[in-house]
Design goal:
The chain has helices at 30-37, 41-48, 55-68, 74-83, 97-112, 126-138, 156-159, 183-196, 212-227, 244-255, 269-281, 315-330; strands spanning 5-6, 12-14, 86-91, 116-121, 143-146, 164-168, 177-181, 202-206, 237-239, 263-266, 291-295, 309-312, 339-342, 345-347. The chain is of the alpha/beta class. The protein has two domains: 5-181, Rossmann fold, CATH 3.40.50.2300; 183-313 and 345-352, 3-Layer(aba) Sandwich (Rossmann fold). The longest helix is centred in the first third of the chain and has 16 residues, at 97-112. 48% of the residues are buried.
């Protein structure tokens, strides 16, 4: 139902309302002014707030403001400062354990400061994301913590009315406070490990090209290959949607080639599940036939068979950091955008040990456990 609220696990969950078809009659936004003036929304904001902008640019912005009839919503700004005690936490996939841990960190900070949290799941859908942003604006929420579907997301309509924004996991082109893990370094370390394990043809299954995490993890993979003197083979790279089905399809396609990969670096946990399922469907044993290392750890990676090598991120701590940055903004901090980085950690388990048997003594159940050589994963 439109606007329905429920409370799973302590956080309020909002469903995206149906589109109200804000077409020709919609209000002019700061983004409209920026497009007409040929500048960024941040530049328009500085002009309107008396910031340091060169005179020619200021004149262009003034002309665009006059032509479009743009007026800032000062009433909404005043109301928000007086009454709002709600944060929106907009995440891209509620089924991903990484994001649920991020939300828990955000909520724990918010509750300690007497804020409520509304959880919005975009499911990597840009239209749903846009609906949530309009909901956040219309409900005059105090701030938003977001993992955006793409780096070019326009948040000017929110920031122009006083909503504070913090991005987590994925960067936005528009300046904002940001909490990140070093994706490039994590991908490099994982790929180096696969090289050290003897993999000759390492495939990379990464996320969408318009997400910073997808691009940075691909670049880290490439950097490890160059570092070892290996050429980059575009035929071993695949952009997917950060979903299990995408990882499954990418792996099946690569395995069907004349020279299939003997190792996979996979850029998130959902796609790693898909890759492992594809290998099992092809009758290939992990790691006897093919090695796998993924980005994002999962609670059951240490219990699956084989256990799965993964780059772990401190998701809960990242959520706490994002909540604290937002709280600082709401508490009066008005300085430049800040970025907080966390270091990834490679956890080496069985799946990356190319050529070894998953029933070796390294297995947590002991060498005598009679188990299949193909991955046995819990159903998602």
């Amino acid at each position: 139902m439109d606007g329905h609220l429920s409370r799973p696990g302590g956080a309020v969950t909002a469903s995206a309302p149906k589109s109200n078809n804000r077409g020709a009659g919609r209000s002019v936004t700061m983004a409209d002014v920026a497009r007409l003036a040929g500048v960024s929304s941040a530049t328009v904001s500085r002009c309107l707030n008396g910031g340091n902008v060169n005179p020619q640019t200021k004149d262009e912005v003034k002309r665009a403001v006059a032509q479009l009839g743009y007026r800032r919503n000062l009433i909404a700004r005043g109301l928000r400062k007086q009454v709002s005690n709600v944060w929106a936490c907009v995440i891209s996939d509620i089924e991903n354990q990484f994001f649920t841990a991020v939300v828990r960190g955000v909520e724990d900070v918010a509750r300690g400061l007497h804020y409520s949290v509304v959880l919005c799941n975009t499911d990597e859908d840009t239209d749903r994301e846009a609906e949530y942003l309009r909901l956040i604006e219309s409900q005059q929420m105090a701030g938003m913590i977001i993992s955006a579907t793409h780096s070019g997301l326009d948040i000017s309509a929110l920031t122009s009315t006083g909503v504070q924004v913090v991005s987590v996991d994925r960067e936005l082109r528009e300046p904002s406070d940001t909490v990140l893990v070093d994706s490039h370094q994590g991908a490099m370390v994982a790929t180096r490990h696969l090289i050290a394990m003897g993999c000759k043809r390492i495939a990379c299954v990464t996320g969408p090209h318009d997400t910073t995490t997808g691009e940075q993890r691909l670049r880290g993979y490439r950097a490890a290959l160059w570092e070892s003197g290996r050429p980059v083979d575009p035929g071993l790279e695949c952009y997917c949607d950060f979903k299990e089905a995408g990882g499954f399809a990418a792996a099946r396609e690569m395995l069907a080639r004349h020279e299939p990969p003997d190792g996979f670096f996979v850029a998130n946990n959902q796609m790693t599940v898909g890759v492992l399922r594809a290998l099992a469907a092809e009758g290939l044993a992990v790691p006897t036939d093919v090695a796998v290392a993924g980005f994002d750890d999962l609670p059951w990676w240490s219990m699956s068979h084989p256990t799965v090598t993964a780059v772990a991120q401190p998701a809960y701590q990242m959520g706490q950091a994002a909540g604290q940055l937002l709280a600082n903004r709401l508490g009066g901090y008005d300085g430049p955008p800040r970025s907080q980085y966390f270091e990834p950690q490679l956890i080496v388990r069985q799946s990356s040990r190319l050529g070894s048997s998953p029933s070796s003594p390294q297995a947590p159940w002991g060498a005598s456990s009679p188990r299949s050589a193909t991955p046995a994963l819990p159903d998602p």
